[in-house]
Amino acid sequence: MKKQKTLSILAAAFTVSALLAGCAGGGGGTGTQQSGGETPAQNSGSGGGGGGGATEKLVIAVVGPMSGQYSDYGSTAKAGAEYALKEKQEAFKQLGFDVQLSSQDDQADPKQGVAVAQMLISNPDVIGVVGHATTGASVTAAAQYDQEKLVMVSPSATGSDLTEQGKKIVHRICARDDQQGSKAAIYAKNSLNVKNAFIMHDKQAYGQGLADEVKKQFEKDGVQILGYEGVTAGEKDYGAVLNQILATKPEMIYFGGYYSDAGIIVKQAREKGFTGIFMGGDGYDSADLVKIAGAENSNNVVFTSTVGDVGATEEGKKWIADFESATGNKVGIFTSFGYDSMGVMLHGLEEAIKANGGKKPTREQVLEAVHNIKDYKGKFVNVTFNEKGDNEFASVYVYKYENGQKVYIGEAK
């Protein structure tokens, strides 16, 4: 998922601290989150205790939008990652390490991603990054981490370009946009019987990347494309472009972007009389879309996601109950993948510690251990990283909104 004046390391640290202090996470239905503005030394995840003898501190950062209109992605991933870390902290103390969590807010902004990355690099205790949550911030931050061999594992950055730039530090457990976009288009044609569509996007890395892949697959499969239009994210009135779109009489409108804009576009299109299908990617996966668009207007809104139905199994239902009881948070869009991303990072860290004779590993040793992970059995997704850092087990799933509720349809084939 998804602007660079060069900063010095110290200046970046000061800027991030000033910008982020007191920022609260949050987002529709995801429960109250802690502030995303702590420096690595301040936010310890769960505190000390346990184990015998002195322990050496290691820090894993969780980075994403913890505030602002995309906060659902960062805050839910953080909640899952924090839960996974708390489960393993005592085991690491027995190995002689106090593994702490640092939550950082990049506001889904590529420039802010750079500032956060520079600050994390400057702290020698930071050994890995779970994140970033959105594609744009991931791409710019990765260029910084790559210089210092600081490994990242994203739960949700889907942009295809992220892992095509040859940076070994980059990993993700979710599917790519070229997988999600093509499968969305195939599903629209074969299961929704769509014969023509108008394609929109928000001009951002994630949204335009998805729209491009949908367009490519529709052209391949013979679905008529009535138009292709970019709009500016954050606008309040999309009336002019919607008039242009609706004049083409589309069976479906595909919008590549996030729930905050999608909700407005759905609402305004419905008010103009559009009764057809809306479709998008996992950027639609938020209760806030329904709040913005209205429950009735949200009917016939279909979206793909890189995350399956967490509650589809008895084991998943138990995990949800345990998580919500332990944290006081509701499971949100990327809670499960935040959990598994942290699991992957901790597995790699443990392997690096063992390979280093029980001593504190270097960043490069942790990078090697994570990069070489094969057949890791996550709670919600299995993980084998290919040479690019993509997960060979990643899948795409389909959901829809019905009477204000998210309904799981199944895996996209």
Automatic annotation (TrEMBL):
Keywords: Amino-acid transport, Signal, Transport. One of its GO terms (biological process) is amino acid transport. Belongs to the leucine-binding protein family. The lineage of its organism: Bacteria, Bacillati, Bacillota, Bacilli, Bacillales. It comes from the Bacteria. The keyword Transport applies. Residues 28-52 are annotated as: Disordered. Residues 59-402 form the Leucine-binding protein domain. SUPFAM superfamilies: Periplasmic binding protein-like I. InterPro entries: Leu-bd, Leu_Ile_Val-bd, Peripla_BP_I. Residues 1-21 form the signal peptide. PROSITE patterns: PROKAR_LIPOPROTEIN. Pfam families: Peripla_BP_6 (PF13458). This is ABC transporter substrate-binding protein. The keyword Signal applies.
